[in-house]
Automatic annotation (TrEMBL):
<dbReference type="InterPro" id="IPR052891">
    <property type="entry name" value="DNA-3mA_glycosylase"/>
</dbReference>
<dbReference type="InterPro" id="IPR011257">
    <property type="entry name" value="DNA_glycosylase"/>
</dbReference>
<keyword id="KW-0326">Glycosidase</keyword>
<dbReference type="GO" id="GO:0008725">
    <property type="term" value="F:DNA-3-methyladenine glycosylase activity"/>
</dbReference>
<dbReference type="InterPro" id="IPR005019">
    <property type="entry name" value="Adenine_glyco"/>
</dbReference>
<dbReference type="Pfam" id="PF03352">
    <property type="entry name" value="Adenine_glyco"/>
</dbReference>
<keyword id="KW-0378">Hydrolase</keyword>
<protein>
    <submittedName>
        <fullName>DNA-3-methyladenine glycosylase I</fullName>
        <ecNumber>3.2.2.20</ecNumber>
    </submittedName>
</protein>
Length: 207
């Protein structure tokens, strides 16, 4: 259950955005987390960064996000898919990111799989939003950090050759990209996210 915390500004936010969090972390909570995303580049960036977070905290990854963007060509899918072993060595030596060879290679691999998915569905957005939970599935999502729907998404991605996309990773991705509104009741951002989700045009598969 997502609990509330009161920040130094006196406003109530989700408990994971702890009272002593730095300003950049509170801004991420207030302005990004949970708002629906239909941009393939942002979706690809997020699924990659969630993979890099595995075993770490999102606060650590968010602090390095601009460095990740710089060395991963803004997470342009076509460009990352062309990265080779020289790029892997370059990234392993870069102290501005998480220097985990397996996660770096996974991001490059996943770019190739993302291109395949685009060819099949027309966009990454069409694929990911097909996993938006139905009303009757929302109660399943109370068992964070994973749920049956995130397990299904994880299995589908891994079947398609994606790496570092376990059910906890896919659940966090769904929360952040707005497939569900997981802001706590009483959080200052919950209603804004609800409104954004109501106005968001869900992407459809291009045949």
């Amino acid at each position: 259950m997502n609990m509330l915390e009161t920040g130094p500004d006196g406003l109530c936010r989700c408990g994971w955005c702890m009272p002593d969090a730095p300003e950049f972390y509170r801004r991420y909570h207030d302005e990004e987390w949970g708002f629906p995303v239909g941009c393939d580049t942002r979706l690809f960036e997020k699924i990659c960064l969630e993979g890099f977070q595995s075993g770490l905290s999102w606060r650590t990854i968010l602090a390095k996000r601009e460095n990740f963007r710089a060395v991963f060509a803004g997470f342009d899918i076509e460009t990352v898919a062309r990265f080779d072993t020289r790029d892997v060595e370059r990234l392993v030596q870069d102290a501005g990111i998480i220097r985990h060879r397996g996660k770096i290679e996974a991001a490059i691999n996943n770019a190739g799989r993302a291109l395949e998915m685009r060819a099949e569905f027309g966009s990454l957005a069409a694929f990911f939003w097909s996993y938006e939970p139905r009303e009757e599935e929302l109660m399943e999502l109370m068992v964070a950090p994973s749920s049956p729907v995130s397990v299904r998404l994880s299995k589908d991605l891994r079947k398609r050759g994606w790496k570092f996309v376990g059910p906890i990773t896919t659940y966090a991705f769904m929360q952040a990209m707005g497939l569900i509104n997981d802001h706590a009741q009483g959080c200052i951002t919950r209603e804004a996210v609800a409104q954004a989700r109501a106005e968001f045009v869900r992407p459809s598969r291009v045949v």
